[in-house]
Specification:
Length: 101
């Protein structure tokens, strides 16, 4: 969660993280619908949980807490604390994509 007071994110309760991850897993294809030229895997950091949001090669990976991934995929990429990794072409494709509603 982000606050305007400049303190940065706070830790979500485990139940909220689980609910956010459940929502991400329900429609990952929709969240990544604008991505072209790469596949995308989402990873809940610190857990074995991953979900393929888009098929394709090369494949990029966005890793972070569920709330951070949601921020990124809803267009708040500058505020989101995630790590985008993978082949350079895939990472560039993710960074060029306008995520959000």
């Amino acid at each position: 969660m982000r606050r305007a007071n400049g303190r940065g994110p706070h830790t979500n309760p485990p139940a909220l993280d689980a609910a956010l991850w459940h929502n991400v897993c329900g429609t990952p294809w929709f969240l990544a619908r604008r991505l072209r030229g790469a596949g995308l895997v989402l990873e809940w950091t610190g857990t074995p949980e991953t979900v393929r949001a888009r098929r394709g090669e090369p494949t990029a990976r966005i890793a972070g807490a569920p709330g951070e991934i949601v921020l990124y995929l809803f267009g708040r990429r500058r505020a989101a604390q995630v790590e985008v990794t993978g082949p350079a072409d895939a990472v560039d494709a993710v960074r060029r994509t306008h995520f959000g509603m």
